[in-house]
Amino acid sequence: MTAGIMELFDAGKKGRGLRAKKEINTGEVLFAEPSYAAVVFNSLASQVCHSCFRRQANLHRCAQCRFAHYCDRTCQTACWEDHKQECAAIRKLGTAPNENIRLAGRLLWRRNKDQGLASDSQLVAVDQLQDHIKDLPEDELKKLATDVKNFLRYWSCGTKQHPAEYISHIFGLIKSNGLTLPDQRGLQSAGLGLFPNLSLINHDCWPNCTVALNHGNQSAVSSTLHSPLRIELRALGKISEGEELTISYVDFLNLSADRQKQLKERFHFDCSCDHCSQHISDDLMAATAEGKPSADVVKEVTAVSKETLEKVEKARKDGDHSQVLKLCQECLEKQENVLADTHLYKLRVLSVLPEVLSYLRRFAEAAEYAGKMVEGYTKLYHPNNAQLGLALMRAGVAHWHAGLVEVGHKMICKAYRIMMVTHGPNHSITKDLESMRSQTEVELKVLKENVLVMKNLPMTSSNSADENMDFLRKQ
C-alpha cells in the first residue's frame, strides 16, 4: 500500500470508496496488493503454475496431491504455506473440488491463521467485505447451498469448524469480490483471487484507474527472494486531489443497458455513471452501414450474427479452426453494407478472425482484419485501455509477419505506450512489446538500407530486378 496517496471515504449510495489524497500522474502505481487467497482454474491445473500463475509447458507436479503444478522448486516452496492444508484436504477427499471451493478453503485457512484481523497493509478485514447474499435470486441460492455442502466434505476435520451460515458468507464474498486472474500474456483467464483493498474501489464504465496482475519475480533462485503474485492499481490519466478512484468491473464494449444488466446480476448495484446514464457510444456500438439498410434487414443480420458468434465460441473451444474461419467469413459477408465497422457484433467477428488466420499462417489476411478491428476499438475504448493495447499488439504482429514491417512497427509502438501506462515496464507483456519494437526497428533500418542499395544498382535485365525484390522479401 502506498502511504499518503489515497484514503478510505464514504461514497454515498455506493458505500465505501477510495479517493486520491494528492494529484496522481498517468501510469503511477497507487498500490500493489498481494492476493489474500488465489487458485488456478481446475481446467488449467496442469498448464498454469499454482504459485505465479504463468502458463508454462512441462510444469512440475506436487508429489503428494498430484494436482498442483509449479514452474520449479522455487515457486513450489514459495507457495507451500498456502498449499499445504489444501494438499492434505485434496489427498483426503481423493480429488480436487472446483475452484470456488478451493478458494473458499484457502481463504478460511488464511483467515484462521490471521485470526480474522486485517494485516498492516489491509484497509479492512476480509469479513468486513460485502457478501450480497440477501440479493441473490433463488437459483443462485440453490447453487450456494450445494457449494456449502460440498465444501464441508472437503474441509479437513482437524481444522477449526465453522457453521454453514458462515461458509455461505465466504462464498458470497468470493462471488461479489473475486477477481479473474489472467496468465502472463494477458490473453487467457487463468484463475480466481481475492484482494481486500481492491474490493473497496468502486466501478465506473469509463474509469480513471486500471488493474494489472504482476506475476512476481520468476528469476529468483531462492523462495525468500520470490516476490508474490500481486495486483497493481495504476492511473489511466492524471487524477486530481480528492477525486474518487474507479475501475471497470466489466468490459466497456457492451451497450450501456447490457453493462448495467451484468453489473446488477453480478455485483448487485445500478450503474449510474456518465457513460451509462447518457448512453455514450451506444450509437456507435449499434450503428448501421452508410447505405441505411432497412430495419428488417438490420434485425435479421443482427440475429444471424448473434447466433453465429455462439457457434464460433463452441468451435473455438473444440479447436476446430477451419470451422471458426468459415463461420466468421460467412458472418462478415452478411454484415457487409448492413452493420457499421464499430458495431459490436462486427467487432467481435473481427477480433476472432486475425487469431485463427494467424494460426493458419495466412498473415496478410490476418493483418487486414486486425487493422479493421483496431480502427473500431480506437473509436470506442479509452485511449489507455489495456484491451486496445492488446489489440494493437496482435494487429502489429500480424502486419509484421505479413511483411508490412513499417505498419506493424507503428502499431507495436502504440501498444507499447499503452501497456507502459496500464502494466508498467517490468510486466512480461511490456517486455515482449519492447523486444518486438527493437526487432521491427532493426528490420526497418535494414530494409531502408537495402532500398538505397537497390537504387544504385544497374537494371541490366528484368531477371536481376526480380532477384533483388526476392532478396528484399527474404530480408
Short summary of the structure?
The protein has 475 residues and is mainly α.
Low-pLDDT ranges: 459-475
Assess the beta-strand content as a share of residues.
5-15%
Mind summarizing the main beta sheet?
3 strands, antiparallel
How would you state the average pLDDT, rounded?
A: 89
Number of strands: 12
- How do the strands of the widest beta sheet line up side by side? 3-11-10
Number of helices: 15
> In which range does the helix fraction lie?
40-55%
Alpha-beta classification: mainly alpha
- Tell me, what's the shape? globular
SSE topology string: EEEEEEHHHHEEEEEEHHHHHHHHHHH
How are the secondary structure elements laid out?
Layout: E1 6-10, E2 16-20, E3 29-34, E4 37-40, E5 60-61, E6 69-70, H1 73-93, H2 99-114, H3 138-154, H4 164-177, E7 179-182, E8 189-194, E9 202-203, E10 209-214, E11 230-235, E12 246-247, H5 256-267, H6 274-277, H7 282-285, H8 295-318, H9 321-335, H10 344-359, H11 363-380, H12 386-401, H13 405-422, H14 428-455, H15 462-474
Parallel strand pairs: 9-12
Antiparallel strand pairs: 1-2, 3-11, 4-8, 5-6, 7-8, 10-11
